[in-house]
Amino acid sequence: MSESDDDKPLKSSKKEPKPEEDDDDVPLKKAKSSKKENVQSQVKEENAPTAKESKKKKKTKRKRGDDDDDDDDDDEEDFDTRKKKAPAKKEKSSKSSSKSAKTDGKGQPKKPKKEVKVEPVYEWWKDEQPLAQGKKWRFLEHNGVIFPPNYEPHGVKMKYDGQIISLTPEQEAIATMYAAMSRTDYAGKDVFKKNFWKEFSEKLGKNHAIKDLENCDFQPIVDHLDAEREKKKALTKEEKLKIKQAKEKTEAPYVTVVLDSHLEKNGNFRVEPAGLFRGRGEHPKMGQVKGVIQPEDITMNCSEDACPPRCSLPGHAWQSLVHKDEQTWLAFYKDTINGEFKYVFLSAGSSLKGQSDREKFEKARELKKHVARIRQRITQGLKSSGLEMQQNTALWLIDNLAIRAGNEKDTNEEADTVGCCSLRVEHITLGTDEEGPTIYFNFLGKDSIEYKNLVKLRPKDEEKAKEGEENPCVSFVREGEEKNFRRVVENMRSLTSNSKKPSDDVFDQLNTSSLNTYLKDLMPGLTAKVFRTYNASFTLDQELYKLEDHPEKSSFLRNDATQLKFYNDANYQVAILCNHSRAVSKTFDSQVEKMDEKIKGLHEELADLKKKKKSADNKEQMKKKIANLEERISKQETQKQIKLKLAGVALSTSKVNYLDPRITVAWCKRFGNFPLNKVFNKSLITKFKWAIDEADEDWRF
DNA sequence: ACGCTGACTTAGAACATGGGGG
DNA sequence: CCCCCATGTTCTAAGTCAGCGT
After folding, report:
1. In sequence order, which ranges of A418-559 are alpha helices (DSSP H)?
2. Please, which positions of strand C sit below 7 A from a protein CB?
3. Smallest CA–C1' separation from A276: which nucleotide?
4. In this structure, are residues A296 and A317 in contact, taking their beta carbons and an 8 Å threshold?
5. Top-level CATH class of A553-694?
6. Which among A325, A406, A430, A552 has most CB atoms closer than 10 A?
7. d(CA A378, C1' C10) / Å
């Protein structure tokens, strides 16, 4: 959002003492507001901390700049319900600024400006590791969850067979859920309709006038929903603001929680509203009603010495209250579709998430140290037979193609998707081309996203190699793996031989758990998914540092736009590797058309200008104009290229989950102090604060 | 050894926002 | 100024994998 405009370079920690950033980037003012809102808690000090605890707490505080004490007083007012009030501290993060933070934190004179909110972050990476093995916290206090409003019957009547039908509120509720999805793709799917009808007809009862779905007309309800939406849209700015503020106010107590002696943000304190289940792909349960969740369905977790979350629905109570300090969840319930667990966790920017995120990348870096050895082992194993051959062949695929492990799934309950271990014969096509053997993969992976990839040897012909490189559905075996690839193909041939049916498993002796057991032997803590993290991060690091002695280095460094493009191209390689995709916008074609027209128009203008130039007296001026226009055209054209290239590709998924943020931070610092906020948005900056602090320009993955 | 429960990460779509260009 | 689109945020589904109980 708003923050993107100030590009501030991140200081390279080494060279410049680093000026501000902290202060302007993290407005302390925010702190104040948040504190007051949440008010809820209480810092553990007040509760008779153990000696050890208090010590540690003290330390934390000190670091943060002792501001705690001064704010305590204010929380009180908002929170009647709690007996203890906590000083919700907002700590401003950076060292240098902490002192000032405290001072103005309270007074808060100014702040008329828009106010970019950057959440205060507890800088866990500056604390020494305090907790005992396995413990996630020593104090946890929060206000639980917030429920969606009860269903309010609107009384709009649907029709059946042309007749107006009255529904009970309960019936109306699910009819309305259906109406709400009338313009989605689900509405046309048989499974969706069938599942919905099953539940709807049950709710209608045996002798209801409505006998089938075909003759139901939900249009009146659809119209009603549209009208409601319009009404909402038509509100004035002020009204909208008011509503927003009211919402913020009610939600404020849930936004932050107290973890040990600091505040953290809750990631998802809103209980999921009832609705029709929207599974991805051909999900057998799409259209089923996802029921209302009651407090009685929810288990709460907090520390024993905390004030437990109070149930906000009168007459209700939590299912139970537990104190599991080896767990990071604040609450959970089971959904009514598959009985799956839904957890309430802290946000991505929290210390708990940050720490495990860092551990994830450290593990991937650990793999980097062992990967040569492990690959050697895999190479060996490719030549064996039976289970060992299967294990190593699968691992080769996981390592080289970055595919997922592939747990078994029950296709009566879930969509039929696969990963490595669950690949079936029908997903593989073996072939040959002028370079040698090929394997074509075509299957649905996680989220029913298509994975289509022709894996082959790199052509000698540079022209062809280039072509293949630009084709996202082709990948070349990486250098040094050619021989292994041939072996893998042979193995795949025997694993898919015609004694097997298309629906049989390729790796019939494998499952993810045995595979991971095998991996654990190769390196402690190693599992299949680590390869994805490792290969993604390694690829980014390699790609980014090609800039180091790139022949066109200076042209990439010419300005932010060109440098950003270089970064995005590297990011793109990773997205392709990991098969991260996104839906192409419905208006994509028309958008491209528009761009074409614009470009065409510019070309015409250019031609015109050139013609005029001949007869013009002020040639110099014309020349300038022409150059200008040419520049605009080329800009438009590259923009179009980018648009086409990224049409179905998501860069964000890898950024958020797979790429060690320190790679990016270091690269930015190293190459012209490139503004980090060009590549990381506000959320990522918050999420990766630890990395921003940690990586200097020499850091490498 | 294996199936199931539980906890946590990863994922794309839906939705909201707001800035730039006509 | 308005609208369109890009980008950011929220939502919740769908994976991975450990550990437990049988």
Report:
1. 462-470, 482-495, 512-522, 528-545, 553-556
2. 4-19
3. C12
4. yes
5. mainly alpha
6. A406
7. 42
Which protein residue has its CA closest to C1' of B17?
A1
Would you call A156 helix, strand, or coil by DSSP?
coil
Q: Is-contact A7 A688, C-beta < 8 A? A: no
User: Which architecture characterizes domain A354-530 according to CATH?
Assistant: Alpha-Beta Complex (3.90)
Please report, rounded to whole angstroms, the spatial distance between the CA atom of protein residue A407 and the C1' atom of nucleotide C16.
8
What angle is formed at CA A413 by the lines to CA A407 and CA A419, rounded to 5 degrees?
A: 25
Which nucleotide in the DNA or RNA is closest to residue A267, CA to C1'?
A: C10
Where does the pLDDT of residue A75 fall: very low under 50, low under 70, confident under 90, or very high at 90 and above?
very low
Query: Which CATH number does the domain A131-347 belong to among 3.50.50.60, 3.40.50.1470, 3.40.50.300, 2.170.11.10?
Result: 2.170.11.10
Q: State the Cα angle at A540 between A93 and A399, rounded to 5°.
A: 120
Strands A158-160 and A216-217: antiparallel
Does the active-site annotation cover A545?
Answer: no
b vs e for A653-678, b when ≥16 Cβ sit within 10 Å of the residue's Cβ? bbbbebbbbbbbbbbbbbbebbbbbb
Tell me the pLDDT tens digit for each residue of A275-334.
999 999 999 999 999 999 999 999 999 999 999 999 989 999 999 999 999 999 999 999
Q: For A680 and B11, how far is CA from C1' in angstroms?
A: 19
Q: Which of A254, A451, A572, A658 is catalytic?
A: A658
Nucleotides of B under 7 A from a protein CB: 4, 6-14, 17-20, 22
